[in-house]
Design a protein that fits this description.
Helix 5 (about 90-110) packs across helix 6 (about 140-150). The protein is built from twelve helices and ten strands. By secondary structure, it is α/β, with parallel strands linked by helices. Helix content is about 40%, strand content about 15%. The termini are far apart. An eight-stranded parallel β-sheet has the order 2-1-5-10-9-6-7-8, with helices on both faces. The longest helix has 21 residues, at about 90-110. The chain has a single domain, classed as Histone deacetylase domain (Arginase, Chain A, 3-Layer(aba) Sandwich), CATH 3.40.800.20. The chain is globular, with a radius of gyration of 18 Å.
Amino acid sequence: MAAPQPIYIHHPASLEHDTGAHPERAARIEAIEAYLGERDWLGYRRVEAPRASEEQLLAVHPGSHIAAVRSLSERGGGHFDPDTVLSPASYEAALRGAGGACAMVDELLAGTGATGFCALRPPGHHAEPAIAMGFCLFNSVAVAAAHAIERHGLERVLILDWDVHHGNGTNAVFHERADVLFASIHQSPLYPGSGPLSDGGAGAGRGFSLNLPVPPGSGETTWVGLVEHVVLPVARSYAPQLVLISAGFDGHRDDPLADCLLEESSFAAMARLVRGLGVPVGAVLEGGYDVGALARSVAATMVALADPGQEDPPSAEPDGVVVAARSALSGYWPAELT
């Protein structure tokens, strides 16, 4: 049997979600696919995203929220808030976004996809169970994690959110659950203003939310250091059966919506580190609004996920942000972080 190929999940509906003069626009996907097309898609097999089923969506979002997104789209579009806009095609695009993430999980767990990247829009990680916000309608990565748990029987999923904005929606979905270890690295202060280091989850989920804020101007040393010295030690103990990356690229130094200083190499380094956990890994596109930096960073991430011959980045001495995070979270994970 031939070795499984990495898979690239896409759908034309992503281009029909019309946001007008808006940072989260169809040109993002066009730039990614033009760049990948010039490079023979980096060896990835292209797969069209199916629609998410109602059952898949209901694992995260109440029926009233699903109906509200569908209704506003069918009425011709409009705004949930000043930043979150719908067009007539937005409901279909959002269904494909969540469905594509679930289809990626199916292929990864069946062994037919070596790794995966979902290049679909709108993004999802700000969408809370009953709130569309921050450009997001349905929380695709949360729907995919819930699908892995409910459909495939997984008991432990790691979601690493490296979008520069806190993944408040994903945090809210899994805040009181231990079957998902949620780790978010994000600039603070910045929209949406959530995700303090002190928020480690609640109830049965206490200790299973790793919120890792970084100051403006943070670069690769801090971000990669947090993955190496905080996320990975906890993840190795947690032993996830699947890793999903909320892959936002707005931490890039060229991005207009934030103030961090990452490069394409930074995202590749984080991808190589989590790939080293030795379990299936797939990424779901979130932010990234300088289209050139976005396209290059997506490609670097895809190469890092798909090429097992690449070595892990060299270990770096933890900086002050990393040391503070380890200290704050050691109460939950003393053996791993002290």
